[in-house]
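Sequence in, structure out. Go.
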Amino acid sequence: VFGLSSVAQVVLGRGEFGQHLSINLGFGIGVTMGIHAAGGISGAHLNAAITLTHCITGNLPWRKLPAYLIGQFLGSFTAAATIFGLYYDALYDYSKGNFTVTGPTATASIFATYPSPCVSLLGAFFSEFLATVMLVLGILIIHDEKNNGALKGTQALLTGILVLGIGLGMGMNTGYAINPSRDLPPRIFTAIAGWGIDVFRAGHYWWWVPIAAPTLGSLAGVLIHKLFIDFHNQPVPDSGNEKRPPVVETS
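Output:
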């Protein structure tokens, strides 16, 4: 909701109600609040690529994968529907009721990502791959208690800042989906809500890239962290064998 509404305000406001920075801030704030809302309950994956990676690496049972994916899909789809309702009048005024994917009054990019016309499909794929590598690598570093992990309670904020940084530096080529759950459900919503099948044809059938590239990027991020950081972490001192005086509880 925070991310899509910030895009809607920039596009429909014709630059008078925000710029590229405000979009990045909107997504960063949304991620931070999402982690605070779901972190203690489900781990707040919020990202299908990360959930799948957890299953592949053995950190999450495969039987839980459908529940996570369904939750992510419903959350993202509902967010798109919410922003569509919130800005319906502005959408209609901006496009004169003609919801298009490309052209001077295109509005589909409010909800899902599309590559820049100057970027090749291979270049766009690499952009999504690299941005997701940085996302997952950053998340692992933030939560790495064996290294120099973040202070307890600051992980959500730092992850939001991480997403902000990715948007600031890697958002031009593709709009940095870096998350199949963030891109596919709103795309399906736009196909239903009036933009039609063009949302899947645009950008040389771009729609599959925000699914495949973040998934591969997430796995690569885990591998990089394991090879270059985790294997070199100093083991946590085991003081369990030390004899300690018994703890006496006093009233």
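Check: The domain at 1-231 is CATH 1.20.1080.10 (Glycerol uptake facilitator protein). Confidence is low (pLDDT under 50) at residues 239-251.
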